């Protein structure tokens, strides 16, 4: 073991040299620091993997592609875990150690030592532990026909996702935290942002959500540019992944390709799904990628502790994407114990959950370092929480039930998206029918399935497949309804502080429930036409979804979005790119900053207030001002502030919507 450790350290030293060399080479080729660092990390990991398997851990060496692929994946995870620990320890030392010239050196040293220890233990005890070598490629196998059907569903989704791709406008929270990509790739101008302070880059977008959308968006925007089409593609990637996982989960559980495909088409045409990628719902919905992965591994785990562990990791990453996925955790814990009757299995799941949540640990450690200590970080968190007021002071249980029902109803019917985009509901009664269908399916599975499943299994011992045979997992298909109940119960704590967008996590679960119930009844042996009936009913759902889309896209074409979702923001950004460099845009109202920053690629300066210090700075710089605001009635107040600061207003005109109504107002001013 000692000789292994010293060889591991030697290889790590060589890897550090490769890491640094590739980073500097990438920077010289024009890569930004973030992209270059990611590239150098993977090159260094690959380099050390080759050397470690050749010189450090030589006893267990799979030669087949399947074994080597598995080993490579485990090695990357182990190295990433060490890197997270390295950053956390570095941040803690920087926060608590007394100031001195050598403090950064000590912080790097302790962080590197802790990271090295985790890396070595992960490699020795997990990646290269003595074990039988399994060369089977454990991947999902698709027939050519099934692959074409998956692509067919994707075609439906992308045709809706990119339909009128330039509409509506980018709502402020519909591009947050993606807009930070502009500041990362073009950091020359230091503009305000609402990102959580961080010493190690954008790890957390706020106290309660991460930056996975930003991480996916950076390469997309690097290739396609900072425009609305690129946003639709970047955010649509999450929708595409959700569809694949929903189809894979339904196929795995039911064994019925037809139901999996039709349910996938239902979700791909579901307005509450596709419209969410044009509003702030997208940041919540995108976390369903991890949540569905957690469900997949939990359902297929049986006694496989590795799958249970991976389910926990993915649950942690789902919570990292947005905090509301924490509301599903009680159901996973309770049902996991009841299903497996094993605390040991729960320990593996919880260990995976803790590992997935290390992203929050790293984010908060970065906050501590950035603000110079725990006291400053705690003060900042308290101020942020006081502004958010996440938990209402009054506890009226009836009122909280009413809000929970209202928000679930608005999300699943798409009314939340329509209110945000149009200020009114344009969907018909079909939206209400789907809401009723959700609860009927949930109750059907929660109450009737366990008895019928046991009856079926006893009558068809050894021949069951699909949903009726999936009765030995850490989590079971008929228990999806309990996930909704867990979410609902936890949401009651926050009352009206919750929003309809938080319930968008239920939309993919709606189609899982419908598919599971359809498969359940199609397998009833005493009704030969049950399978045909289930497929026909699912097809009817798809057709009604397509019909529901028509008034939505019609209103979208007519208005281009209203209120803070207007597409007039695009013209504002285009006009700004042609203005002189001494012009500063001023956004005293909420809603302009993030889309403007994104669409101008952080190439135009702006401020977000009219405080005396800000106005004094602008006056000192002799800057011309373009002040943008929503309501005409605020114009006189803003004019008075500018004139009191020594500016003369030269223009005050509206930007227009597609339906020839006022979108917002632009006031130009110069120094006398």
Index terms:
five-stranded mixed beta sheet, mainly alpha, 7 strands, 672 residues, two-stranded antiparallel sheet
In short:
The chain is mainly alpha-helical.
Q: What do you see in this structure?
A:
This protein has 672 residues and is mainly alpha-helical. It contains 28 helices and seven strands. The longest helix is centred in the first third of the chain and has 32 residues. About 4% of the residues have low confidence.
Radius of gyration: 27 Å
Mean pLDDT: 83
Determine the strand fraction and express it as a percent band: 5-15%
- Unreliable spans: 133-140, 450-470
**Helix count?**
28
- What's the shape? globular
Order of the strands making up the biggest sheet: 4-3-5-7-6
Q: Structural class, from helix and strand content?
A: mainly alpha
Give the arrangement of secondary structure elements.
Layout: H1 2-28, H2 33-56, H3 65-96, H4 103-127, H5 144-161, H6 180-185, E1 204-206, E2 209-210, H7 212-224, H8 228-254, H9 257-269, H10 271-274, H11 281-285, H12 288-299, H13 305-321, H14 329-340, H15 343-356, H16 358-371, H17 374-388, H18 397-413, H19 415-422, H20 430-447, H21 449-459, H22 480-494, H23 506-522, H24 530-559, H25 568-577, E3 583-586, H26 593-599, E4 606-607, H27 612-620, E5 624-629, H28 635-644, E6 647-656, E7 662-671
Parallel strand pairs: 3-4, 3-5
Antiparallel strand pairs: 1-2, 5-7, 6-7
Helix pairs in contact: 1-2, 2-3, 3-4, 3-16, 5-8, 5-9, 7-8, 8-9, 8-12, 8-23, 9-23, 9-24, 12-13, 13-15, 14-15, 14-22, 16-17, 18-22, 20-23, 23-24, 25-26
